[in-house]
Amino acid sequence: MSTTVSDTHSAHDAHDDHHDHKPTGIKRWLFTTNHKDIGTMYLWFSFLMFLVGGSMALMIRAELFQPGMQIIDPHFFNQMTTMHGVIMVFGAVMPAFVGLANWMIPMMIGAPDMALPRMNNWSFWILPFAFLIMLSSFFMPGGAPAFGWTFYAPLSTTYSTDSTALFVFSMHIMGMSSIMGAINVIVTIMNMRAPGMNYMKMPLFVWTWFITAFLLIAVMPVLAGVVTMVLTDKYFGTSFFDAAGGGDPVLFQHLFWFFGHPEVYIMILPSFGIVSAIIPAFARKPLFGYASMVYATASIAGLSFLVWAHHMFTTGMPTFASLFFMYMTMLIAVPTGVKVFNWVSTMWRGAMTFETPMLFSLAFVILFTIGGFSGIMLAITPVDYQYHDTYFVVAHFHYVLVTGAVFSIMAAAYYWLPKWSGVMYDDFLSKLHFWCSLISVNILFFPMHFVGLAGMPRRIPDYAIQFADINQIVSIGGFLFGFSQLIFLAVALKCAFKKGKPAPAKPWEGAEGLEWTVPSPAPYHTFDVPPKV
Amino acid sequence: MSTKKEEYSKYYVPDQSIWPIVGAVALGLIAFGAGHFTIEASKQEAGYGHYVLGAGLLVLLVMLVGWFGDQIRESRQGLYNAQLGRSYKQGMSWFIFSEVMFFLAFFGALFYARMIAVPWLGGASNNVSTGEILWPAFEAIWPLTTTPDGTTTQAMGWFGLPLMNTAILVVSSVTLHFAHVALEEDKRKALTNWLILTIVLGLIFLGFQGYEYVHAYRDLGLTMQSGVYGNTFFLLTGFHGLHVTLGAVLLIIMLGRVLAGHFTKDDQFGFQAAAWYWHFVDVVWLLLFVFVYII
Questions:
Q1: Is residue A19 predicted with pLDDT exceeding 80?
Q2: What mean pLDDT do residues A120-148 have?
């Protein structure tokens, strides 16, 4: 492993190597082919989108603070719920994971860069344009899309405004970006591993992303297909989703959720990889059950193609189909349970310390599991008749997406920020960020379970008076959680401007992996010559 | 360790490049322009959408020429090694897999409409009252020549032009294979001829397909508006046609490179990628022919 050290030294006396100088100015970012630059842009972009999508959520919570209509009108409320969902899914969580993949995968497998560096930059730069187009629809007559991020027909066809066309085309180019990013990840992993880095030696973050990339390539084209059908149904007189012409709105839901369910695993599998890197590092024990983690991830991915209609129990389908999708869904609890038990076993009798990445990972394990349990409740068909389209569902998927995906992204950011920036993050602020987030996020989402079970429907700007108390609590939690994220902004900016203690190459005693063999901050080019693993 | 360094053939990581951001601008313009053009066209208003769309396509063209040009130059300079070649091949394979999934969505819509939606509208399963109350006159048959709301059309037969087109596309796959064999055996003249023949067959296919659309609209009354049968017909064959067009453009570029003396037995990724794409498009057509035309 000393190869890397000699490699970075030899970079100085290097001959004709044009790679060594770091380009400066705006051109560095516009024309870059460097996986670290592109990773950085992805991460900042996703954080910006997180704030944009988050402020929409705050609009929603402000309106729901009291029953009755106070601040925004119902149509604008629907635009807020729609764009909040679209932006958080496609603009915040997915790009954040792609950014982490860009930064870490080449360093973790000992590759000089991503396999297709120019396409990598193209994948990133499509996103700002896609979201500019999406957001520009706020200024059109009729406003932005208001049919929910799931854009069910006929809401998105017969009853939508003109912004649908912009929604469809920006989804198309976002999908292209995702597919190209996924192809890049998969090819990098298959083709760029250093000698000796065989598949069962890869860090789990690499493994989970490998499987995620496969899911992306498999389902993003289906999304492209279904948005195309929405476009032709709305503008060109087709009737895919219109019974009068022989089509069926239920077809929309089948196609959408065939994409949509693997999509939600796309947003959680990389989290599993992150947590599987961090928990062993701070428990100072190797990960318990590495191979079973790999197989569990693959099983979850495989099952994700066979469960889509559990989103549609109340839409109506033959009983045998309901049963099939119910049992398949419950089966997912098995590999997921394997993972949770493995994480707990890793910590068992470990020499644990509680640095910020570990705190976020621990919170992830507990809170994601809560989200998983409510998922099992929702999987039970007859019970789902009661829960469907209530705040219980909102609570469920925010537990898996916020305290799951977002918390793992925060954990990853704290874990690798020293490697990225070369300075340690501000410990006090990071702990403040953690505790504020942890407490507020539970004030925000936990009570939603109760209003949901009591029958409060989702996606409404007004509600019955008996839900008022809990909604006020939820809104207070929401604002606390939202503003807590500004602490993270401060931490990240301090690191970006190198304000902090210089970080050693390996700031975490128990951390494992090739990324810790290169100096901090990681040199512009690492592993020009592959290390020996 | 030093021996290790010498053994390792360096993976080519390109320098900064202007083309990705140009490509992103192009896609942005295309998406914005296409969106506004669609809105304007649906209201029959004049607007700027088509100008933006056109500008986007132009920028995309510039980007493709520039980007491929860079890559061809680098490849000719011998900057690429076997590992990079594998990256390109794997990348292309996964791209084709994504295209398979794209078509799967439309085939899925076809199967759902045929096996589930239309029979249910006709009262199958537990939907007797749906049929009787909403559309008592509706008869669930496929091809769906009369929709529940009474729009009528005629079905497209499979004999004649579609069968001929199938033969043309299958033969073009074979001729392309011969071109590849000729490339492997370094028979340049045969390579050029077989490749030209493939392209000509592809263009004839597209011509016939265009004629078939005219026939559908004018003689059969089969249009985009004539219910789910026409919808699946036009979207499946239409997207297939677009893919044939793209495949033909790729083959024409490859013809230009062959004439310029590019490609050898060991250096032929561009040609191979175009050929894979063409074979993929051919397989899609065979499925289309069976499920859209015959059955």
A1: no
A2: 96
Q: What distance in Å separates the CA atoms of residue A292 and residue A298, rounded to the nearest whole number?
A: 10
A36, A61, A261, A506: which one is catalytic?
A: A261
Band (A10; pLDDT cuts 50, 70, 90): very low
CA A70 from chain center: how many Å? 32
For residue A239, give how far its alpha carbon lies from the nearest alpha carbon of chain B (Å). Answer: 6
Interchain contact, B87 vs A111, CB within 8 Å: no
Chains A and B form CB pairs within 8 A to the count of: 239
ipTM: 0.95
Per-residue pLDDT tens digits for A412-449: 999 999 999 999 999 999 999 999 999 999 999 999 99
pLDDT of residue B124: 86
Task: Give residues 118 to 147 of A whose Cβ lies within 8 Å of B.
Answer: 118-122, 125-126, 128-130, 132-133, 136
Q: What is the pLDDT of residue B79?
A: 87
Question: Cβ–Cβ of A244/B147 closer than 8 Å?
Answer: yes
Å from B188 to nearest chain A CA?
Answer: 31
The 10s digit of each residue's pLDDT in A214-223 is 999 999 999 9
Nearest to B229 among A122, A226, A246 (CB): A246
Assess whether A55 carries a catalytic annotation. no
Q: Per the CATH hierarchy, to which homologous superfamily does domain B81-294 belong?
A: Cytochrome c oxidase, subunit III, four-helix bundle (1.20.120.80)
What lies within 8 Å, CB to CB, of B48 at 6+ separation is: B36
Question: From B144, which residue of chain A is nearest by alpha-carbon distance?
Answer: A246
Tell me the CATH number for domain B1-80.
1.10.287.70
Verify whether residue A311 is a known catalytic residue.
yes
Q: Is the pLDDT of residue A11 over 50?
A: no
Q: Which of B106, B125, B148 sits opposite A318 (nearest CB)?
A: B125
Mean per-residue pLDDT pooled into runs of 10, chain B (295 residues) = 56 92 97 96 90 97 94 88 92 97 97 94 86 87 91 88 95 97 94 97 97 94 93 96 96 94 89 96 96 91
- pTM for this entry: 0.94
Question: How many H-runs (helices) and E-runs (strands) does chain B carry?
Answer: 10, 0
Within 149-178 of B, beta carbons closer than 8 Å to A belong to: 149, 151
Among the listed ranges A256-260, A398-402, B221-225, which one has the minimum average pLDDT value?
A: B221-225
> Which pLDDT band holds residue A23 (cuts at 50, 70, 90)?
confident
**Which of B 65-104 lie inside 8 A of A, CB atoms?**
67, 83, 86-88, 90-91, 94-95, 97-102, 104
Q: Which CATH number fits domain A2-9+26-517: 1.10.1670.10, 1.20.210.10, 3.30.300.30, 1.10.760.10?
A: 1.20.210.10
Domain ranges of chain A: 2-9+26-517
| Residues of A whose CB is below 8 A from B148 | 243-246
Q: Which of A120, A167, A238 to mutate to test the interface with B (most CBs of B within 10 A)?
A: A238
Residue A527 has pLDDT above 80, yes or no: yes
CATH 1.20.120.80 in chain B is located at 81-294
Is A177 annotated as catalytic? yes
Alpha-carbon span A153 to A170, nearest angstrom: 18
Cα within 13 Å of Cα(B169), Cβ side: 31
Beta-carbon separation of A238 and B231 below 8 A = yes
Distance from CA of A255 to the nearest CA of B (A): 7
Residue B7: what pLDDT? 60
